[in-house]
Amino acid sequence: LEEAAFQLQQIFRIDISIALNILGVESMRAGHCRVAFTCFKLAADRGYSKAQFNVGLCYEHGRGTEKDLEKAGWYYCQAASSHHPMAQYHYARHLLQHGPGSLRHRQHKALALLEQAAGAGVTEAQAYLGVFYMRGLQPQEKRGLKYLLQAANSGDAQSRYHVGVCYEQGLGVQQNLAEALRHYRQSAAAGNRQARERLQA
């Protein structure tokens, strides 16, 4: 009976958190940012990762509350530790831009989070890693191209443009101008200005 009561409490706690988070999303859509933030915060403080991520967004962008990057980072960290992929991406970006400690340590931790987010299909993380590995202090072009292709195949026009650059310049792949043109055309068709300019050049 004790176990059953405990399970019911857990279900009730989770259901309340889900309901509060949904109410927060609907309030945000209706333009009631303060109400949304309050709902997100109540659910986040119950340990619900989706709400923790939403509280992080509110603090990062000053929606429904004062802008506070330190608090945004804290909530992103909480959600990321529960394997929330978008929170992993946002916390990684936070670590690289605002985090405490040495750059090397922050970069190592951020890369691990970005790899997890990219593996979960977060296009932004794939694109970020692609560019990072291409332009880092110690470029890993094949690895960078792998992530750029993942992001491009998820519909990211900027990553598609970068894949074209890789084929044009032979970065991480054998130089192939026909393949570069194909990627530039796809990127341009998706509205990428750099790709249009490259095709004209």
Automatic annotation (TrEMBL):
Coiled-coil intervals: none
InterPro entries given in the database record: ISR_Activator, Sel1-like, TPR-like_helical_dom_sf
One matching Pfam family: Sel1
Biological processes, Gene Ontology terms: extrinsic apoptotic signaling pathway via death domain receptors
Any one GO cellular component localisation term in the record: mitochondrion
Protein name: DELE protein
Lineage: Eukaryota, Metazoa, Chordata, Craniata, Vertebrata
